Amino acid sequence: MNSLALKEACHELRIHSVYYQVYVAKTLSSTFGKFSSPGN
Predict the structure, then answer these.
(1) What is the DSSP letter of 36?
(2) In this predicted model, what pLDDT tens digit does every residue of 15-31 receive, in sequence order?
(3) SS3 string of 2-19?
């Protein structure tokens, strides 16, 4: 595997990991939002 392909793979992985983190954050916030009381 040449370095260019490796860089491309790392770039793709980084983009996907960012999207995944955003998705998880949104899911967690919406889930915990239902459980958190309005008083907080």
Answers:
(1) S
(2) 889 999 999 999 988 88
(3) CHHHHHHHHHHHHHHHHH
